[in-house]
Amino acid sequence: MKRHYKLLILLIFFTLLSCDNLIKETENATVFEKAFSLCTAFLVPTITIIGLWITIPIIRKRLAAEHISDKIKEIQIANSEIHIVVQQLIDKYTILLDEVGFITEENIERVNKDLEKGFDIVQKSSSDVATVMFYLKVTLQEVLKYYSSKQDIKNLQCKDFYIFLINVLNFISYYSMRVVQIPKSSKIKNKYLIKKKFRKFVTKSQIKEFRHFNIGAFHDPDSFHYLRFCDFINTTKNPSFMKSAFLIYHNPNAIAKILSFEKKYAPSIIDKQVPKEQISVEENVYMSKSLYLIGFVINKIYSNDTLTNPTHYVDLVYFKHTNLETIPAWDQLKIEFVDKWIPESGFDISKSTKYDSEKIGQIITLRYESSILEKYYKLNRVRINKKLKIVKS
Q: Chain-wide mean pLDDT for the chain?
């Protein structure tokens, strides 16, 4: 609208200027000559302004399209480079699948160093590639923190670690070669970097950005990329890796979705029951007693040596977000804690057949028979879908 007003003012200015000169030049002319001269005076600036009106947006659109075209070329080049790096690492780690023993801090540091070149290239790659690489980088760095702080890390078999790594690298490889990042349009929108009430205190608070063209990693806990990554993490069966992936977004929904795909239900958040008059105090983030579901392991055990009639079970891995209070003991957990994610689910925590805890890592593992979680899924399927369904705005 501002551009329209400016061009209109420009049109009026040129027209008035022409009319002023015309009046002086046609004092002795006939009425017809004056009318013709007046139309001519209006016509020239009008055509000029209309020309500007039409061409300026076309030029801007052309420049934006050329900029996007150059960026897409850069992205495809970076994706090709990433593909080569990733394939080399897949070949390298495939050989290591036969390694016996547990992963050490040195193993993870070596992998982190192998990925450094990829981390550098990914700055210019497509958003899909950059996002998955970001997840991998953050997770490995977080796990290394646990080693450096001497936290109690459950052992992870070398084979399980390298299977996880190869799965993620194959995921990146797919996006680097088969997915093309082409925007729906080259439209540009104005964006303010600061709230309206603060704009009078700063300069250059407005920028122009592409409406449909994102560069770099995107951060969406509901994306397929994060869901798939958490699925890969879950296969490690390792609480430290599960915790590291959860801390990317502090959101348990990805694991809740994966568990629901197995047609099982367990609360994504369990918390201590709090009297209504204390809710405002207890729900303070620094005092929260909430436990978040960060992963699960489906397995089976046999009750005899004949390997018949196995009991199928699920180990649910929960993480306590704050270190200000100790994790609850089993006697407290089964009596005082309830399902906070779907309060009306009827989930009975006390039906757990095994309780395990890691005080340093703030991890609790609860074991339930698969049939129990399947029963809760059937009872709450509609509620689960409603909680997890993405509502498009």
A: 80
Answer with the one of 39, 72, 105 that is the final residue of a domain.
72
| Residue 119 domain-assigned (yes or no) | no
Check if the beta carbon of residue 265 is closer than 8 Å to that of residue 377: yes
In terms of residue numbers, what domain contains 64? 2-72
Radius of gyration of the chain (CA): 31
Domains: count for the chain: 2
CB-neighbour burial class of residue 3 (10 A; exposed 0-12, middle 13-18, buried 19+): exposed
Q: Is 157 exposed, middle or buried (0-12, 13-18, 19+ CB in 10 A)?
A: middle
Closest listed residue to residue 372, CA positions, set 358, 354, 356: 354
Residue 263 lies in a domain: yes
- The residue with tokens 């001269």 is 37
172-190, pLDDT tens digit by residue?
999 988 766 565 555 666 6
End residue of a domain, out of 55, 72, 89: 72
The residue assigned the tokens 């500007």 is 52
Q: Which pLDDT score, from 0 to 100, does residue 286 have? A: 40
Helices 370-388 and 253-261 sit at what angle, rounded to 10 degrees? 120
pLDDT digits (tens, 9 = 90+) for 306-340: 667 788 999 999 998 776 567 889 999 999 999 99
Other C-beta atoms lying within 10 Å of the C-beta of residue 142: 17
Q: How far apart are CA 189 and CA 232, in angstroms?
A: 37
Cα–Cα distance, 270 to 321 (Å, whole number): 12
Q: What is the band of 287 on the pLDDT scale with cuts at 50, 70, 90?
A: very low
Placement of tokens 């953050």 in the chain: 138
Average pLDDT over residues 121-128: 85
Instruction: Annotate 303-369 with DSSP letters as a single string.
Output: SSTT--SPEEEEEEEEEES-SSSPPPPHHHHHHHEEESSSGGG---GGG-SEEEEETTTTEEEEEEE
> Which of 67-81, 220-234, 373-387 shows the lowest per-residue confidence on average (mean pLDDT)?
67-81
Helix (H) or strand (E) holding 248, with range, is none
Question: Where are the strands (E) in the chain, listed by range?
Answer: 188-192, 206-210, 269-272, 291-301, 311-320, 337-339, 354-358, 363-369
369 domain residue, yes or no: yes
